[in-house]
Design a protein that fits this description.
Distance between the termini: 23 Å
Order of helices and strands: HEEEEEEEEHEEHEHHHHHHHHHH
CATH topology of the largest domain: Jelly Rolls
Radius of gyration: 22 Å
Number of strands: 11
Structural class: alpha+beta
Length: 318
């Protein structure tokens, strides 16, 4: 269930569920000739897929423009404006002027479709979403020549078909396809970045500590011992602890504590489970032990956190 504290032995899926990652296709662009479009800085993670043709992509901030070909996919987490253009010398048109009042959400620059792009964004939970957004690089560019190219090509083709054919359930099908594309982008980034990835993303990509992460996520309520986790990775306790901290940024038991607190945060915001029951479900022998751990980590007691979170939800615009 979407708001359940139930977790699996798949850390990657657990975290995507926790942050409520939901990918939405919002529109696209067709163009011919000389053109350029400036997209404003957004407060959401954006994705952009080149279906046909090619263009230049330039993220505001001084980076060199990137050449994008059909089949390329971008994920932009930086809250900066960016330009897509057939030629960087062309004067850019503001995206807002193209999409305002556009019912189909397809901006057309010219009559021909020499270039086709579709895009959207990834919605993240306002509170827990930073767990993902904070470890993403400003721009991920997965090229059509990457090892994942076949999968991306199929997903792009299906997305275009769903949007063009107007079949029953097209909106839901498009959302599911876009979600798969988002997951594939993250997988491609994990594979390509390797040690250059940061935080838990780097930890997920490290095959040596992966067995320990799966154990922690399969049963976060268990009082895991370092010896047990080290044995699962076929390392000595000392080697395991050093490796885990170097990759994940924190020691194994700190990771376990932090993951428990993430689960607790979500449950306190979204569920009505009593704090005493939540404490037991996360491996604490008493409500006071859980409350003390939560307060040390989050800065306030669980009940106060729940009250503040619900008040914030009531006060936020609908």
């Amino acid at each position: 269930m979407r708001n359940s504290t139930k977790v699996t032995a798949d850390p990657f899926s657990d975290i995507l569920k926790l942050v409520d990652a939901e990918t939405v296709v919002t529109g696209g662009v067709t163009a011919e000739g000389l053109w350029a479009i400036r997209f404003p800085a957004a407060d959401k993670v954006k994705f952009c897929a080149i279906v046909k043709g090619n263009c230049w992509a330039c993220l505001d901030g001084g980076e060199e423009p990137l050449r994008a070909e059909a089949g390329d996919v971008f994920l932009l987490s930086a809250k900066r404006s960016f330009i897509l253009a057939s030629d960087m010398a062309a004067a850019p048109v503001e995206a807002a002027s193209l999409f305002t009042g556009n019912v189909g959400k397809i901006a057309r620059l010219g009559d021909s479709e020499d270039f086709i792009q579709i895009g959207g964004h990834v919605r993240l939970d306002p509170t827990s979403g930073g767990l993902l957004a904070d470890v993403l690089p400003p721009l991920i560019h997965v090229r059509a020549t990457s090892p994942q190219a076949t999968v991306f090509r199929w997903l792009l083709d299906q997305l275009v078909h769903e949007r063009a054919a107007e079949l029953p359930g097209a909106r839901l099908a498009s959302a599911q396809l876009a979600q798969l594309m988002f997951i594939q982008i993250l997988r491609a980034h994990l594979e390509a970045a390797g040690p250059a990835a940061t935080g838990w993303l780097r930890a997920l990509g490290d095959k040596r500590i992966a067995p320990a992460l799966r154990l922690i996520h399969s049963d976060p309520a268990r009082s895991w011992q370092l010896e047990e986790l080290a044995k699962a990775t076929a390392m000595s306790r000392t080697t395991f602890v050093v490796r885990f901290k170097a990759v994940a940024g924190v020691p194994p038991l700190t990771y376990l504590l932090n993951w428990r607190m993430r689960i607790a945060e979500r449950a306190l915001r979204a569920e009505n489970v009593p704090v005493s029951i939540l404490a037991l479900s996360l491996g604490y022998t008493s409500e006071s032990a859980f409350s003390n751990a939560f307060k040390r980590t989050l800065g306030m007691a669980p009940k106060r956190y729940r009250e503040a979170a619900r008040k914030q939800l009531q006060d936020s615009p609908s």
